[in-house]
Description:
Number of helices: 15
Mean pLDDT: 89
CATH topology: Farnesyl Diphosphate Synthase
Shape: globular
Structural class: mainly alpha
Distance between the termini: 73 Å
CATH architecture: Orthogonal Bundle
Number of domains: 1
Low-confidence stretches: 277-303
Strand content: under 5%
Largest sheet: none
Amino acid sequence: MSESDTITRNAKSNLAFTLMDLPAEKRMRMAQFYAFCRIIDDIVDEPGMSEQERHAALNRWEDVISQKVPATPGIEDEVQKLVSELQLDITPMLELIDGCRGDISPQQPETREGLLAYAYKVAACVGITSATVMGASAEAKDYAIALGYALQLVNILRDVAEDCRKYSRFYLPKNDMELFGVTQEDIREQRYNYRMRQLLAYEAALAEKFFGDAETLYQQLSVDDRNALIPAQAMSLIYHTILLKMQDDEYRVFERRYSVNNFRKLWFLLRARLGTVAMPTFPSLADWGFLKNKNSSDTPENK
């Protein structure tokens, strides 16, 4: 088993789950790309490293995917070959690294524009490259961006408490928090009240907008692109369900972590696949001769 396979299997993430739908070669390549994303995220989040060491590790990965340095055997070599063999545009991968780098010394975004700029790097750019690796055309880029925004906003809403407690990170825009009278201290102290619910509902509405945009864009893609993006569409169904769970539960993100069980994930994967199948076109009643009234003027007897 390759190093990327091991990383992907151990992660047990929603994306790793949906990759089972892909043909073997594309599944292998997506495992390689997912492992790269997982490693970049872990460099920033895992304990035991100084800020200097984290930056140095990210710098190393920038040089690896830019092919400025020889890759070491294992995941570096796998990712470098992935980039070379698929001739990937490495700009989104470099932007992902840059976005994650910002989490080493996190700064709360002032506005929604700042939040979306961050989400573009850490989520939309992942979507852009994933779409290419899965075999979609360049026409899928806007879909990948919209879905990336939606998924990241759900993550931010779901993980408000954890991001604060474990990493002292606040991703909800400062201006939005001020609009609803919510402070960082409210989040630290996990104060669940009307103001907090209204703030989270306000951000959830933005996520809902991007889910809607992504679905519209998905339906406009060719059948080939939709088939290539079945795992992404399954991710959309999974994360939208998580969003709906939070909405129905009035955003009790300080009390529980919202998720979807494996049975429902399988169902969403099936739904995503069925959504790409062109249904047969049935003839109209006018074409079904045996259903015609025998007394009509165009029956054989009257011709």
